[in-house]
Design a protein that fits this description.
Number of helices of chain B: 33
Low-confidence stretches of chain B: 264-285
CATH class of the largest domain in chain A: Alpha Beta
CATH topology of the largest domain in chain A: Rossmann fold
Distance between the termini of chain B: 58 Å
Largest interface: A-B, 55 and 47 residues
CATH architecture of the largest domain in chain A: 3-Layer(aba) Sandwich
Strand order of the largest sheet of chain B: 4-7-2-1-10-13-12
Strand content of chain B: 15-25%
Radius of gyration of chain A: 21 Å
Largest sheet of chain B: 7 strands, mixed
CATH superfamily of the largest domain in chain A: P-loop containing nucleotide triphosphate hydrolases
Oligomer: heterodimer
Strand order of the largest sheet of chain A: 6-7-8-3-9-10
Largest sheet of chain A: 6 strands, mixed
Helix content of chain A: 25-40%
Shape of chain A: globular
Strand content of chain A: 25-35%
Mean pLDDT of chain B: 87
Structural class of chain B: alpha+beta
């Protein structure tokens, strides 16, 4: 059952940039990853769904709510963590959460306190609840972002590039929390890190240039490329030549300082190529490349 | 590197549209101000509007606006880098700290300077526009502008720019920059109010951050001619002031420079670092299940209302606990406190810290501060989310827009309430410090929260609206600063361009008629009948403010809107049914209230006497009846009147009879009767007559007597007068609930009404010939009789029956004959025991009564029961004055003296009506405990003297007449004070009069007269100069001798008809006893404006072997004449002027000297804080430099030339000097 449905959404900025281009997307409950490079229009899409800005045309529905016509109904069940946010200076996490809990309509004081305590525990901020959020480290601040999100008991959660800049442990912790929440709700999760999607999402879309290039699942995306991914050690000088004659997905150095090119081809492109197990990254790069050549 | 950053920054600013908006504002406002003033200048006025000093004064008006540009531009220039997080990148670049900071500062300072050049440009253009009065402007003077910018504007921008820059870099908070500016403004206010006293002026001049006081220090006593022509001085304290503040700015900037570092935390404060806590991350802990507790969500409007309240509390707490808010509040508190401590009433005397006074003092400056804070924090509140980049988290919450907006409004109002409560706190504190415990808490709370709060809430609505509409909070703030200014200045502008109906308050946001600075409150009459007007207007504006809030609701940004068009579309979407309904409803109520107010004031009950109405009245009166000006009228000899006062209804009715006698030697056949303009009045004559004119507009009748009145004939005029009808905004102002002071001017008068337009330009427009003078000179012997207008001269007999409500006492001049009650009203019958001048009044109030006696004369005092503070002073002053006057000038003419208090709202003077002396409330609450000047005592002495000088002799209605009354009363006042306090204290009183005189002549808008030719309104001459000169004469000639001359003059004119007394006559009488050696005094004192410039230069002393002392004293003497406009003249008709070349080649001039000037030396002994003389002697001085060698038997402490200020000295502060 799909419960978030986006139809023919378009947003053109005054400088002519088409941030979202006639985009349609159906999302069902669970973790949905939106993978795309910087500038793909992910944030514009997310902000539009989160009722923060208006599209030029199109529609968004969530569980029967017409989001553009009735944003207030969505806000009641919305959790949103923007790509970048600040907080009022010199206010403790506890107080700030109380402020958000009020904004979100939690009526009773005891309930508010219990909810805040739980949110702090879940995000492992209980110990530092008296500290000013403005003094938190990046990871703590992101977790605080989740804590404030939980207060509305959200059914739709929108998380915009939350793992950028987190250390691996923090990132792991963050994803774990997100996974827990995502089991019951619809989570829309944007990132430019392929691993985030691979680890977390059961459904995903690749986005660039304001359009959805591919909607799939992480497994299916990789599976689809079975026996189509080939690698070959190359000299640095060969790279340009390879790029022009094959669909070059990526190139990377191995530990022995040899450069390997990774290409996509339905058939074995040549004897010097060896088959390689496809992964999500391949699917991502391929999608981007195909979109580029299509243009 | 410096150049690169500077250029980059500078270009960045030039691309900002807001810069051009600021520049345009400054250009338009300054141009408008200059043009407006120069165009408004009347043809009479000789004040140059664009003189160097005037440019400086006007540029000061823009100081506040200019100061707020500093954070908006200079502060923003550094804040930008923090806010955009650019610093994370920028700070990694290989800048030198010096380059970065200096380039940032100087580029933004340059931008501000460019914007402020618009002020000068506006002035220069404004003075050159068509329509200006050519006499009021001089051609463009580069030097004047160079001085303005070089010495004041640019240094101030640099100094305070550096301070703001430092503070913003230090705090990384742009609001701190705004707060710093507010604090600078407060500091200036405090300096202004603390150092008001003469002796503090130098310090104030030194410390004033903007340098304004320093300029005032030198120009305070400049005469009109000097103000018009001189460039601003560039010496002494002005230089020190500039140096001091440059130094302070350098230190602050040096501090930034030293400690600024390119790191996340702008300042390295190593000393304050707390031991860092290790936050151990227990990250890879077990995966907890996320079972959030069940909670109830409530999205009902009621709950959202509560949420709005709670959010406002959150915002309120955050703001009021921020150090920036606290520092403003502390500053503001200090400002009120110091202003409340310095309570200046009329004449520079202090009042007791009455509660109304405590409330009144902050109403101007502190009210401005509350507005500033409202405007600033409205911006902060509305843009707070965006400022801290938390807005997206907030915007997606399910709280509706209205609740957000409401929470901001409530938070702002809470801030205002807090700020207002400081008025009470400071007020009570000041009262306690003064040992004054008569707190009126009810009044405090009523005025602060019942009256003021609504005023500020209406401004808050505007602030919220503007800050919601504009996305740039700094521009919003700037606009908000301009709007209240515009509300005050624009009405006169629209008036000038001929849309005079538009100037009414109903068209100008949050304006109320009659509300200038604070409320007019009296302990007797409270707010009078003002409050209904106030509330009517405020409710009207509050509805308007509510409409503005709806606009704010429609346009408030939530989320991201990229263009105004998009915002418009959003607003359209928000315009749902309830909003449309609310908007329509508030607009409807607003418009209908506004229309009703306008109609009530202009059509239904024409309560406004507009300027045009008044002009028409004067013009028509003159055109129609000027020709009757010299028609002789019979003289009033007896008045019998019954007056019924209804304090509760604020009404009165009166009927009376005049007995009019032809006291002239001519036959009279025409009566001219001018009767009440506003009141309903009728009259009958007991003489056969016909009407030539019955003018209902001017209320003036010309009557032809069928049988002429022969000399000695008399007729009766019976009249009935009653209050005008009341309307909503207007009740008869003559009768009030408690403390009525009803003057005889409501009764009919005889003769031409002498109300004429004085401005010759206006007269020309209305087809009237130019008018040479108000009043004839004393040399005009034809004017010394009764004939001249206002022939209410001479003496009358008065019989009055006054009634009032039973709780009140009613008074009129005369001796109380009988008192009775009838039909629930109280009646008093008064009858004069000897003739009084024909000015009388009727009073009614709930009074306490104090009875006393001086010899056979009863003294009865009627006062507000709480006002016992000065009762004794008032009575003692009367007695001391009776002592002095009866000793020299003859017996007192009445059996009783009645003194009655009247509300300060009705006037601030004391006067004499027969044996009745009405005193304004002010004198009952004056503070007599400090400063050694007992004003109520002095006023009593002065007024009592008028029973002789003013009532036994009454001068002709000519220029110089007041010398016979006011100069004499002031002189006797000084003498009575001298008797009470001793000769040593007289210095203070003389110095006080001298300062008032010098300030009065500096503020003279027309021409300064001599003592002989002063108009009645030129009080600085009639009162202060007259008192000083008469005192000096008594010192030169001897008190007894002079008083004998006065007494002879008095008895010659007592109750005597024409020719009436005048200044020349009194001068001639004095001249009889002036010896030849002193004859220069007559010319200096009476015929010319002559001032001394005496000064102690050096002192040196040694002790001799016989333990006596020798003091060597170098003094400079100088004297000059001044013409009516303040131009100095040093030569006499016969003799050339003296001159001396001083160090530095400056030549000093003087009139030739043959003058007697006192030299005094003072020892250690003191009395009441005044040193007693050990040597005092009058010396004849003939040259400008004199050295005295004085042998003394005590150690000298202080020495001086004219040390008691007996002579009029342009620079009195250098007359005395401590002996080294």
């Amino acid at each position: 059952m799909k419960n978030l449905s986006i139809k023919q959404l378009t947003k053109v900025y005054s400088n002519g940039v088409k941030a979202v281009d006639n985009l349609s997307l159906e999302i069902s409950p669970g973790m949905f990853g939106l993978l795309g490079p910087n500038g793909a229009g992910k944030s514009t899409l997310m902000r539009t769904i989160a009722t923060l800005q208006n599209p030029d045309s199109g529609s968004i529905h969530f569980n029967g709510i017409d989001v553009l016509q009735d944003p207030m109904s969505l806000r009641k069940i919305l959790g949103y963590l923007p790509q970048e946010f600040g907080v009022y200076p010199k206010v403790s996490a506890e107080r700030l959460l109380a402020y958000f809990a009020r904004l979100k309509g939690v009526e009773k004081k005891q309930e508010r306190q219990a909810l805040i305590q739980k949110a702090l525990e879940v995000t492992n901020l209980y110990e530092v609840r008296k500290k000013h959020v403005s003094s938190y480290s990046g990871g703590m601040k992101q977790r605080f972002g989740i804590a404030q999100m939980l207060l509305s008991k959200p059914q739709l959660i929108i998380v915009d590039e939350p793992t950028a800049g987190l250390d691996p442990a923090e990132r792991q912790r963050f994803l774990n929390i997100l996974r827990e929440i995502g089991t019951e709700h619809t989570v829309l999760f944007s990132t430019h890190i392929v691993d985030d999607v691979k680890e977390l999402c059961h459904e995903m879309a690749i986005m660039n240039g304001g359009r959805i290039l591919q909607q799939t699942t992480p497994e299916a995306a990789a599976d689809k490329l079975k026996e189509q991914i080939w690698t070959k050690p190359i000299q640095r000088e060969e790279l340009e030549q390879i790029r022009s004659s094959y669909t070059l997905l990526s190139s990377h150095y191995k530990r022995d300082n040899t450069l390997y090119a990774r290409i996509h081809s339905p058939e074995k492109p040549g004897p010097e190529f060896t088959a390689s197990e496809p992964n999500l990254e391949d699917a991502y790069f391929l999608a981007l490349q195909q979109a580029n050549t299509a243009v | 590197m410096f150049h690169t950053i500077f250029r980059y920054e500078f270009r960045h600013w030039l691309r900002q549209p807001v810069i051009y908006i600021y520049a345009a504002f400054f250009l338009v406002i300054s141009l408008g101000t200059m043009w407006g003033m120069a165009a408004e200048a009347s043809s009479e006025v000789v004040r140059i509007i664009n003189s160097p000093r005037q440019i400086n004064v006007m540029a000061n008006l823009f100081n506040t606006l200019m100061l707020f540009l500093l954070p908006s531009i200079i502060g923003l220039s550094i804040y930008r880098d923090f806010q955009s997080r650019m610093y994370t990148l920028l700070y990694a670049f290989p800048f030198k700290k010096r380059d970065y900071l200096l380039a940032k500062l100087l580029s933004s300072v340059t931008v501000v300077i460019i914007i402020t050049t618009m002020i000068g440009l506006g002035f220069a253009l404004g003075a050159a526009l068509p329509g200006v009065n050519a006499k009021a402007v001089v051609p463009f003077d580069v030097l004047a502008y160079a001085q303005l910018y070089g010495l004041y504007l640019i240094p101030n921008i640099l100094l305070f720019g550096a301070i703001v820059f430092a503070i913003v870099s230090f705090s990384r908070n742009i609001y701190a920059g705004f707060v710093a500016v507010i604090l600078i403004i407060i500091l200036q206010l405090i300096i202004e109010s603390i150092f008001k006293g003469v002796e503090w002026r130098y310090l104030a001049a030194l410390l004033d951050p903007l340098g304004d006081e320093a300029v005032k220090y030198y120009t305070r006593h400049w005469t009109l001619a000097e103000r018009n022509t001189l460039p601003l001085p560039l010496t002494g304290v002005i230089l020190y002031n500039r140096l001091l503040w440059t130094g302070i700015a350098l230190i602050i900037f040096g501090f930034v420079f030293r400690y600024f570092s390119f790191q996340q935390q702008a300042f390295s404060r190593s000393s304050k670092k707390k031991p860092s806590q290790q936050l151990v991350k227990s990250q890879l802990g077990p995966i907890i299940d996320i079972q959030l507790p069940t909670v109830q969500f409530n999205f009902t409007p009621l709950h959202q209302l509560r949420t709005a309240w709670q959010l406002s509390s959150f915002d309120f707490r955050e703001i009021v606990s921020s150090w920036s808010f606290i520092s403003i509040v502390l500053g503001g508190l200090l400002a009120i406190f110091f202003q409340q401590v310095e309570m200046n009433a009329a004449y520079g005397f202090k009042l007791l810290p009455m509660t109304w006074k405590m409330l009144h003092i902050p109403s101007f400056i502190y009210a401005g501060l509350v507005n500033l804070i409202t405007f600033l924090f409205a911006g902060l509140l509305l843009h707070r989310g965006r400022l801290h980049r938390m807005n997206h988290l907030i915007d997606i919450s399910p709280l509706p827009n209205w609740a957000f907006l409401l929470s901001k409004v409530i938070a702002l109002v809470k801030i205002q309430m807090l700020l207002l409560s400081f008025i009470i706190i400071a007020g009570v504190t000041v009262q306690m410090i003064n040992g004054f415990y008569d707190f009126q808490f009810g009044l405090y709370f009523f005025e602060v929260y019942g009256l003021y709060l609504i005023h500020f809430i209406i401004w808050a609505c505007l602030a919220i609206c503007i800050q919601s509409l504009l996305s740039n909070p700094y521009l919003g703030f700037f606009l908000l600063l301009l709007i209240p200014m515009g509300m005050i200045t624009l009405p006169s502008l629209v008036d000038r361009i001929g849309l005079s109906f538009l100037k009414q308050e109903v068209f100008w946001y949050n304006q109320v008629p009659g509300f200038v600075i604070g409320f007019n409150y009296s302990d007797l009459n409270q707010y009078g009948s003002y409050l209904p007007t106030y509330w009517a207007y405020k409710v009207y504006w509050l509805v308007g403010g509510f409409g503005l809030l709806i606009v704010a609701y429609l346009f408030r940004t939530r989320g991201i809107a990229f263009s105004f068009r998009e915002r418009l579309a959003i607003a359209k979407r928000r315009m749902d049914r309830p909003v449309r309904l609310g908007l329509a409803l508030s607009l409807m109520v607003f418009l209908s209230l506004g229309t009703s107010i306008f109609l009530e004031e202009n059509v239904w009950h024409k309560t406004r006497v507009s300027d045009e109405d008044e002009t028409t009245f004067k013009v028509e009166n003159e055109k129609r009846y000027k020709r009757y000006e010299n028609v002789l009228q019979p003289q009033l000899s007896r008045v019998k009147v019954a007056v019924d006062l209804y304090p509760e209804q604020k009404q009165f009715s009166a009927k009376g009879t005049y007995t009019l006698i032809n006291t002239s030697e001519q036959v009279m056949d025409t009566l001219l009767i001018a009767h009440s303009y506003r009141e309903k009045s009728t009259y009958q004559l007991t003489w056969p007559h016909t009407f030539v004119v019955q003018d209902t507009l001017i209320k003036f009748d010309v009557i032809q007597l069928k049988k002429p009145m022969m000399p000695g004939d008399s007729l009766l005029l019976q009249f009935q007068v009653a209050s005008e009808d009341h309307s909503f905004f207007h009740t008869d102002p003559r009768v009030i609930q408690n403390g009525t002071f009803l003057g005889s001017q409501v009764f009919p008068k005889l003769g031409y009404r002498a109300v004429e337009l004085t401005d010759n330009e206006k007269r020309k427009q209305h087809g009237l010939p130019p008018r040479d003078t108000d009043l004839p000179l004393p040399t005009d012997s034809t004017a010394l009789g009764y004939a001249y207008p206002g022939n209410e001269i001479g003496w009358i007999e008065l019989e009055a029956i006054v009634s009032t409500r039973p709780e009140q006492v009613a008074l009129a001049p005369g001796i109380l004959q009988r008192e009775w009650e009838k039909d629930g009203r109280r009646y008093f019958h008064y009858q004069t025991d000897s003739p009084i001048t024909p000015q009388y009044s009727f009073h009614s109030g709930q009074f306490a009564i104090q009875k006393d006696k001086w010899k056979e004369v009863d003294i009865i005092v009627y006062y507000h029961p709480d006002h016992t503070y000065n009762l004794n002073s008032i009575i003692e002053g009367v007695k001391a004055s009776l002592d002095y006057n009866t000793q020299y000038f003859g017996p007192y003419q009445h059996k009783e003296i009645r003194i009655v208090e009247y509300p300060r709202t009705e006037g601030t003077f004391a006067t004499v009506m027969g044996n009745l002396m009405p005193y304004s409330e002010l004198y009952w609450i004056g503070d007599i405990s400090t400063d050694g000047i007992d004003l109520p005592y002095y006023i009593s002495a002065h007024e009592t003297t008028h029973h002789w000088w003013g009532h036994q002799v009454n001068p002709a209605n000519i220029r110089g007449g007041q010398m016979v009354t006011e100069s004499m009363a002031e002189y006797v006042g000084l003498k009575v004070l001298e008797r009470r306090y001793g000769k040593a204290m007289i210095r203070r009183f003389l110095r006080h009069d001298l300062d008032l005189y010098l300030e009065g002549r500096a503020n003279e808008r027309g021409e300064e007269p001599t003592l002989l030719t002063a108009y009645p309104h030129q009080e600085y001459v009639n009162y202060q100069k007259g008192a000083l000169l008469f005192y000096a004469l008594s010192d030169f000639l001897g008190e007894e001798r002079l008083n004998t001359v006065f007494a002879a003059y008095l008895s010659e004119h007592t109750h005597h008809g024409p020719p009436l007394p005048h200044s020349l006559g009194l001068r001639d009488a004095i001249a009889e006893i002036v010896p030849d050696t002193l004859s220069y005094l007559l010319e200096d004192f009476f015929e010319t404006i002559t001032l001394y410039d005496n000064k102690v230069v050096e002192t040196d002393w040694e002790q001799l072997a016989d333990s006596s002392y020798v003091l060597e004293l170098r003094v400079q003497a100088g004297k000059f004449r001044s013409d009516g406009y303040g131009n100095r003249l040093y030569s006499d008709n016969q003799l050339d002027s003296l001159s001396v070349t001083r160090d530095g080649g400056k030549v000093q001039h003087s009139l030739p000297l043959q003058d007697y000037i006192e030299i005094g030396v003072f020892g250690a002994q003191e009395q009441d804080g005044e040193r007693l003389p050990i040597y005092i002697h009058r010396h004849k001085m003939t040259s400008m430099d004199t050295v005295f060698s004085i042998r003394l038997d005590q150690r000298p402490i202080e020495a001086g030339i004219d040390p008691y200020h007996k002579l009029i000295d342009i620079q009195p502060e250098d007359n005395r000097r401590k002996v080294n």
